[in-house]
């Protein structure tokens, strides 16, 4: 499998996992924890910085839940 195809596969896998994990949590702490988990898992799958991925996941999940509280 060439590198380009592998990267696409990892990206698709990552987005799928993030969509399942994102937007969960009843309070701010749970939302941050789930976002960090999704971001870190995505970063591992994409072979990027895990800490940065976790930080982006936290920020994204909290922002999503703040914008759409009925979906969380």
The profile of the biggest β sheet is:
none
Structural class: mainly alpha
* Cα-based radius of gyration, to the nearest Å: 13 Å
Would you report the number of β strands? 0
In whole angstroms, the N-to-C terminal distance is 38 Å
Shape summary: elongated
Overall pLDDT score = 80
How would you describe this structure to a colleague?
- The chain has 72 residues and is mainly α.
- The chain contains 3 helices and no strands.
- The protein is elongated.
- Helix 1 runs antiparallel to helix 2 and helix 2 packs across helix 3.
Key features of this structure:
72 residues; mainly alpha; 3 helices; elongated
Topology record:
Elements: H1 3-21, H2 28-46, H3 50-67
Helix pairs in contact: 1-2, 2-3
Short description:
This protein is mostly helical. The chain has three helices and no strands.
